[in-house]
Amino acid sequence: MTETQKNFPPKADQPRAEKRPPIVVVVGHVDHGKTSLLDYIRKANVAAKEAGGITQSVGAYEIERIHATHPDGSKNIEKITFIDTPGHEAFSKMRVRGAAVADVAILVVAAEEGVKPQTKEAIKVLHESKTPFVVAITKIDKPSADIERVKNDLAANDVALEGYGGNVGFQGVSNKSGEGIDELLDLILLTAEMEELKYDPSANADGVILESKKDSKRGFTISVILKDGILRVGDSIATQTAKGKIKILENFLGEKVQELAPSSPGVIIGFDDLPKTGEEFLAGNLKDEDIKNIMAITTCPEARKRFCKIDGACVVKIILKADVSGSLEALSDLIHKVPKKDKYQLEIISESVGEIGDADVKSAIATDAVILGFKVRSGKESENLAKDNRVRIITSEIIYELIEAIESYFTCLSAGDIVGELEVLATFGKKAGKQIVGGKVIMGEIKNNIVLEIQKNGEVLGTGKLINLQESKKDAVSVGVGKECGLLITSDVEIKTEYHLIQR
Fold first, then answer.
1. Residue among 82, 93, 98, 108 at smallest CA distance from 24
2. Is pLDDT above 90 for 184?
3. What would be the CATH architecture of the domain defined by 21-196?
């Protein structure tokens, strides 16, 4: 049971009598054929092809497979759901919180190369998460293919294949010709049968957020995959960071539906805010207390989803980016010297040279990390992705400003009830109780539609309601530390420069 599920209201003690299809992810080393395997499966399936570009926004697709033909000529058709992004962040979350999106995994190993570093990493994750898996030995049509070597490599890495002292099924495949892919799909269904995947149709629906974004026309558009219960239009829904009521429900083909069955991917419109990728959700006839419990997992709002507990300590994860290797080394050394703040400590999970890209943001989404960049920029698409998923990116041309920003972040976490603090840099008059101000976030983050505490030299002068927040002249849900922004505030207090605005 995951941390979120502990806060879910208890389900009725009823047997999970209904069978559900398996949810499958593909993992393995880079360039070993993960993408081409999924592409072949999708293109060979009529239902999946009909989705077109829709699958790119949903993040998953379904196929149908004739699993058996009965004597009377009738056919047993089975569904399989594939998460269509190899190494999807929802699967990566198994490392952190055990959010087991996948029922079955396909471990891809190239016949010409064998087990490589990322293969070993995937094997470790599969073993730790106890996810059942099968092995697809790809590129068997290559002249340098050596299937026997792959089998031996796998055995040396604690993967015991069928016929080689273990029970892990395997199949050689060609992603070009399709050889072996039908047999691989049958192997997946057989593995799923052994897992006896069931669901309770009377239970509240629960599942995992696959993708989360703000659409200019449709609002908050959330891709999900359902694990239990039936998801219906009109259901209340909640994650740790967002809630709402389902107004529109679409299947993976982009068709509007009234309900969604377990193991099915789909799109939800109706959230009041953006949930985070990889979060678990609960939906149904939820009471206010149920929603409150789901969203109140951590005591510090700023810390929510930004650290995990290890041996009693709250670990804040950092992704480091720098312009050159020398800068990266210096920044890394300084980060390691930042002292613990109360029960908080830092952990650098990755460090690399170059611009901040989508891969860095997706890694931060998957691991709940903060991105720290020295003399590097991020592209517009990466910034939007980060903003939609509340990933904090802190950049500076001065290395010690980055260290100060992290120390400020620690201060916010240890303060507990302080979400963010902004220093007012400019004011633009007050009219009819409304005032426009400009400022810089010096701690935590400032969120839209929240009451602000107005301070002068630490003295509380009153409060105001933030009714509009902008960053770079564009509406924003939140603005993180080190960023400048514009605010439209309703208050009886006339706000002046050098005042501080506090969110709790």
1. 82
2. yes
3. 3-Layer(aba) Sandwich (3.40)
Q: Could you tell me where the beta strands, DSSP code E, fall in 323-458?
A: 344-353, 370-374, 393-396, 420-431, 434-447, 451-456
Contact between residue 464 and residue 494 where contact means Cβ atoms under 8 Å apart: no
User: How far is residue 274's CA from residue 127's CA, in Å, rounded to a whole number?
Assistant: 32
Tell me the CATH number of domain 307-415, given options 3.30.457.10, 3.10.450.350, 3.40.1440.10, 3.40.50.10050: 3.40.50.10050
CATH number of 420-503: 2.40.30.10
Question: Which of the pair, 498 or 89, is modelled with greater confidence?
Answer: 498
Which three-class secondary structure state does DSSP give residue 237?
Answer: strand
Q: Which CATH architecture has domain 205-295?
A: Beta Barrel (2.40)
* pLDDT category of residue 412 using cuts at 50, 70 and 90: low
* pLDDT range class, residue 349, cuts 50, 70, 90: confident
Question: Could you tell me which residues come within 8 angstroms of residue 133 by beta carbon, excluding any fewer than 6 positions away?
Answer: 104, 105, 106, 107, 126, 168, 191
Whether the domain at 21-196 and the domain at 307-415 fall into the same CATH topology: yes
Cα radius of gyration (the chain): 25
Integer Cα distance of 5 and 206 in angstroms: 9
Q: CA-to-CA distance for 172 and 111, rounded, in angstroms?
A: 8
> Taking CA 39 as the corner, what is the angle to CA 33 and CA 41, rounded to the nearest 5 degrees?
105
How many whole angstroms separate alpha carbon 132 and alpha carbon 127?
9
- The whole-angstrom distance between residue 42's C-alpha and the CA centroid of its chain comes to 23
Domains of the chain, by residue range, sit at 21-196, 205-295, 307-415, 420-503
- pLDDT reading at 364 higher than 90: no
Question: Residue 315 pLDDT more than 90?
Answer: no
How far is it, in rounded angstroms, from Cα 32 to Cα 138? 7
Vertex 401, ends 397 and 405: CA angle to 5°?
125
Kindly provide the residue ranges of all beta strands, DSSP E only, lying in 70-218, ordered along the sequence. Answer: 75-83, 104-110, 133-138, 170-172, 198-199, 205-215
DSSP letter (8 states) at residue 249? E
Residue matched to tokens 């509009």: 468
Averaged pLDDT of the chain: 81
8 Å CB contact between 210 and 229: no
The tokens for 166 are: 């273990």
Return the structure tokens found at 392: 């904090």
pTM of the model: 0.62
Q: How far apart are CA 351 and CA 328, in angstroms?
A: 7
